[in-house]
Each structure stands twice: as C-alpha cells, then as structure tokens.
Amino acid sequence: MQGKSRLRHVVIAIALALATTPAFAIDEALLPRNLSPWGMFVSADIIVKTVMIGLAVASLVTWTVWLAKTIELRRKGALALQRTRGLESNMTLAEASARAGDAHDAVAQLIQSCAREAELSGGILDDGLQDRVALRLERVEAAMSRQIARGTGVLATIGATAPFVGLFGTVWGIMNAFIGISESHTTSLAVVAPGIAEALLATALGLVAAIPAVVIYNHLVRGIANYRALLGDASAQLMLLVSRQRDHREFRLARAAE
C-alpha cells in the first residue's frame, strides 16, 4: 500500500510539471529580447510600424518647414523693412520705382504696381488714381501674404491629426496584445506588458510629432503677421507718396494761375 501511495504522488508531481512547463515556455517565447524604443519598434505589428514611420516622417516635415520658413521670413522681413524705410525719405514715385528696378520681393512689387498704375493713368494724379492704386496694393499684399504662408498649413494638419494617428496605432497594438494573451492562455504580466508597451510607443510618437508642430505653427503665424504688417506699412507709405505728389502738383497749378 505504501508503494502504491508513493507511486501515486510521483505520477501527480510529473503531471503538474508537464502541465506548467508549456506556460513557462510560452512566457519565455513571447518575451521580446529588447525593450528599448528601437527593439519595440522592430517587434511591433506591421500596422503599428507603419503608423510609427508615418509619425516620424511627419516630425521630419515639421522641422524642415520650420527651418525653411524661418530663413525665408528673416530674409524677406529684413528686405521689406529696408525698402519701407527708404520710402519714408523724400522721394518721388519715379525714384522709388527706379530703386526697386526689376526686383521680385514684396515691397518692390508694391512699388512697381503703384508706378504701373500711375503710368497707365497718364500721370494724372487725382482721387481716382489713389483709389486704383489702393486696389492694386491690396491685391499685391494678398498675393504676397499667400506666398509667405505657403507650407504652414501642413503644420496645422500634423498638429491636429498626429495624436489621433498615434492613438490608432495604440489601439491596434493593444488589440493584438490581448489576442496574443488569449492564444497563449496566460495572464502573466511579463507576457502582457511588452505588447502594451509597443502600443503605447505609437501614442508617444504621435505626441512628439504633434506638440512641436503646434508650437512651430503658432510661432510662424506670428512671424507672418509681422511680415504682413511691414507690407501694410509699405503700402501706406506709397499712398502717402502719391498723395504728396498730387498736392504738390495742385500747388504748382494754383501758383501758375495766379
């Protein structure tokens, strides 16, 4: 009887060992070797990888737009300020047009447009000319404003959509993690954690792409507003120049009549 009891205990111990061994083997097999960001990216699902790559590209686009638009705003802003200060001196419209030449910057185009309208008007400086010049300047300002703002819309798009794209990657990754838990028949935290960590990495990348995009967009919007203000100052100086020439001509005609 004692021999049968011992044999029964041995059989139960072997059965328990065989029953628990596959679970441990599954745990070890499911554990990734590397839990660094790169390791989690490599072991992530193809959909999550695609989301992460897209967010990385969006972040690269954000910093590229920031660098390009910052250089453009500084260069064009400095040139616009220089030409606007030149208009504040005592000069005629013809002299301003000669200084601008064939340049393609914003203030030069304002000057050229104003001179072109004066030329088409036959040199007659009246209220109608001022209205036509104001209309031309307004249209040139609008065109230059659209040109300087080109490329900033993508920053607004990235800032608005990147968190949701990252959230989609997280939801997809967590869904796959729970499917893996169901298939492995284990609830060990060591099995659950890596899949969830990979999924949360997508949300982190979404925030990394979105936050700089929003900050840079707001910064560029302020810079563009300052640039538009410079163009408005240049237009005002041109309108004053046309008005001064009109007043001088009327004065000369009055003196001749006397």
TrEMBL record:
Q: How does it sit in the membrane?
A: Multi-pass membrane protein
The cross-references to InterPro entries, in alphabetical order and at most eight, read: ExbB/TolQ_transport (IPR050790), MotA_ExbB_proton_chnl (IPR002898), TonB_ExbB_1 (IPR014164)
Endpoints of the signal sequence: 1-25
Keywords carried by this UniProt record: Cell inner membrane, Cell membrane, Membrane, Protein transport, Signal, Transmembrane, Transmembrane helix, Transport
Gene Ontology annotations of biological process type: protein import
- In this chain the MotA/TolQ/ExbB proton channel domain maps to 125-226
Q: Where are the transmembrane segments?
A: 41-66, 154-179, 199-220
Q: Cellular component GO terms, alphabetically?
A: plasma membrane
What subcellular locations does the record give? Cell inner membrane; Membrane
Q: What molecular function does GO assign, one term?
A: transmembrane transporter activity
Q: Which Pfam families match?
A: MotA_ExbB
Q: Which NCBIfam families does this one have?
A: exbB (TIGR02797)
Q: How does it assemble?
A: The accessory proteins ExbB and ExbD seem to form a complex with TonB.
Name the job this protein performs: Involved in the TonB-dependent energy-dependent transport of various receptor-bound substrates. Protects ExbD from proteolytic degradation and functionally stabilizes TonB.
Provide the family line. Belongs to the exbB/tolQ family.
Q: What is this protein called?
A: Biopolymer transport protein ExbB
What is the native source organism of this protein?
Bradyrhizobium shewense
